[in-house]
Design brief:
By secondary structure, this protein is mainly α. 84% of the residues lie in helices and 0% in strands. It has three helices and no strands. The chain has helices at residues 3-51, 55-85, 93-100. α1 (3-51) packs antiparallel against α2 and α1 (3-51) crosses α3.
């Protein structure tokens, strides 16, 4: 196998690894955001059942849950989704090669 063909095969495997890492980071961020949203709404349901709040209290709990879900999505899944969309810069082949080491030789 020529050196150019070997280099092309290696860089294609490294790019595939980078895409896989980005997909896993995005999926993990979305799952963590869903966990934050579910935990927050569960806590708010328990709080509301104890305090028997008025419509204003329920509205405050609703908007707090909504805000915490948006913030969780922005912080946990946002960077990975922006990298997947190509808006933020992702790692280049050299950085991936340093992380992978000699595993693909």
């Amino acid at each position: 196998m020529s050196l150019d063909a070997r280099y092309a095969k290696l860089t294609s495997r490294l790019r595939a690894t980078g895409r896989r890492e980005q997909l896993m980071a995005a999926a993990g961020g979305l799952l963590l955001s869903a966990a934050v949203a579910c935990t927050t709404i569960t806590i708010f349901v328990f709080v509301e059942s104890f305090i028997n709040g008025s419509m204003q209290v329920r509205s405050m709990l609703w908007w707090t849950w909504w805000g915490s879900t948006v913030v969780a999505l922005a912080l946990l899944a946002g960077p990975a989704l922006l990298r997947l969309a190509g808006i933020m810069h992702s790692d280049d082949v050299d950085a991936l090669a340093r992380r992978v080491g000699t595993a693909y030789d």
